[in-house]
């Protein structure tokens, strides 16, 4: 039997410790973003919730504060450069830095290219891809001045493998995967790690909204979505745990990767 050295693991940071760090999370008023904001706060991070949904975003911030954490809400349409600028400025004014940027905001339109309008295509690409460009462009210089940081982008399993009636969504998430890799290459020298998450179907309002777009019952749609090796859809909290790993120093040598968190949904297709 091989003996494990007594110093094995020494020097490897624990997963989850975000004490003293500041995290700016877009789309954090609900779903995966909300779950991540709550988890990051539990692990010691100060949280900025950037979202268009003011009432829900305020509620998340207040929940964090009620539980002893530090958080603010910043209203922001992340497809607009001015709103991204305000979100970063508010973060720096309140907390003095940005160590983690989670570009989580996203939308989906279930339609083929023949069914999509030009405005729908543009909106999906703006929310899912342009927002990452705008936020990263503003945050990277901040991270560089402080010696580095972690950027996490929300991609999808459908950014790695196509799906039906989701042309704009698949195109946008494929773009996120390669934008992530390009950012990792360009900014690794500044100590900035850039990774993306590729979740499978997760039980959020957005997933249930897909059923409505397709004219299916939510129960039937969720049952079909659960057809994967683990036999169920994901929970927002499970995706948040993956984001926590990428945000923490435990992932200090991880950059340019697309982390699949999908209950095995892509296991037979890649």
Number of separate domains: 2
Counted by DSSP, the helix tally is 8
Cα shape? globular
CATH topology of the largest domain: Rossmann fold
Largest sheet: 7 strands, parallel
Q: Please give the share of residues in helix.
A: 40-55%
The stretches of 5 or more residues where confidence is low (pLDDT under 50) are 1-6
- Assign the CATH superfamily of the largest domain: NAD(P)-binding Rossmann-like Domain
What are the key terms here?
14% strand; disordered N terminus; Rossmann fold; 44% helix; alpha/beta; 270 residues; 7-stranded parallel sheet; 2 domains
In words, what does this structure look like?
The protein has a seven-stranded parallel beta sheet with strand order 3-2-1-4-5-6-7, sandwiched between helices. Strand 4 (100-103), helix 4 (118-145) and strand 5 (149-154) form a beta-alpha-beta unit. The protein has helices at residues 31-42, 54-66, 81-95, 118-145, 167-187, 205-214, 218-225, 236-247; strands spanning 22-26, 46-51, 71-75, 100-103, 149-154, 192-199, 258-261. Helix 1 (31-42) crosses helix 8. The protein has two domains: 22-199 and 235-260, Rossmann fold; 201-233, no CATH class. Helix content is 44%, strand content 14%. With 270 residues, it is an alpha/beta fold. The longest helix is centred in the middle third of the chain and has 28 residues, at 118-145.
Layout: helices, strands, pairs:
Layout: E1 22-26, H1 31-42, E2 46-51, H2 54-66, E3 71-75, H3 81-95, E4 100-103, H4 118-145, E5 149-154, H5 167-187, E6 192-199, H6 205-214, H7 218-225, H8 236-247, E7 258-261
Parallel strand pairs: 1-2, 1-4, 2-3, 4-5, 5-6, 6-7
